Amino acid sequence: MTIAADIPLDRPQHIVLDEMTWDLYDHLLRVVGDRPIRITYFRGRLEIMSPLLSHERWKGMIGRMIESLARARKMPFIRAGSTTLRRQDEDAGLEPDECYYLQHVRNVLGKERIQLPDDPPPDLAVEIDITRRSVGRQPIYAALGVPELWRFDGKRLHFLNLTADGRYELVDRSLAFPFLSAADLQPFLERMHAEDDMAVTDAFDEWVRTLKP
């Protein structure tokens, strides 16, 4: 099986396959490699998508915000980006738009890949949800055990925490950054419609410097 490497980023590419096996999912991950293609798999249903430019801008900006906040608070972190997270025992896998280790940095320091469930899942994942998906990703994040999810729908950012019964619930404050609400970040995300990334990043960094230690 071959997959073209020159999928354009100016329009979404969307393929959904049902009744797929874990072995096929594993094979596709190896075939795709580092190409800009996202493969989502959950209990036999497989979805292949290529990201839009706007998707990449949003995820990059939110990632920079997380890193700026962590640096300001002297919090060690590891950016795991869109590394593949999967659990064969849960028949689930995906690539987050962004993900970070914050509380469990020491557990994964020096590792070349994450092996769930032996390794802890990322402490925080970012999900840019601006295109229609046929495979819901929140149940996959829950199956993987990611404790905190920041979801941006193109208009608003939402913070979600994983509950004891395996569901995500909306929360007012971030688990990783208890001083932070989604509303704090909203004005900077709205500026992305009219300003370039450097201008928004500089404004956000200046705001972070005003926060009390």
The mean pLDDT is 91
What is the straight-line distance between the termini? 53 Å
Q: What's the SSE pattern?
A: EHEEHEEEEHEHEEEHH
Q: Give the C-alpha Rg.
A: 17 Å
The level of helicity is 25-40%
Major beta-sheet overview: 6 strands, mixed
CATH fold descriptor? tt1808, chain A
Which stretches are poorly predicted, pLDDT < 50 over at least 5 residues? 1-11
Outline, from the CA principal axes?
Answer: globular
Write out the strand line-up for the largest beta sheet, numbering strands in chain order.
4-7-8-9-10-11
Number of contiguous helices: 6
CATH architecture: Alpha-Beta Complex
Q: Kindly give the count of domains.
A: 1
Alpha-beta content class: alpha+beta
Question: What is the C-level CATH assignment?
Answer: Alpha Beta
What does this entry look like structurally?
The protein is 30% helix and 23% strand. The radius of gyration is 17 Å and the shape is globular. A hairpin with a 2-residue loop joins strand 2 (38-42) and strand 3. The chain has six helices and eleven strands. By secondary structure, it is an alpha+beta fold. A six-stranded mixed β-sheet has the order 4-7-8-9-10-11. Strands 1-3-2-6-5 form a five-stranded antiparallel β-sheet, with helices on both faces. The chain has one domain (53-208): tt1808, chain A (Alpha-Beta Complex).
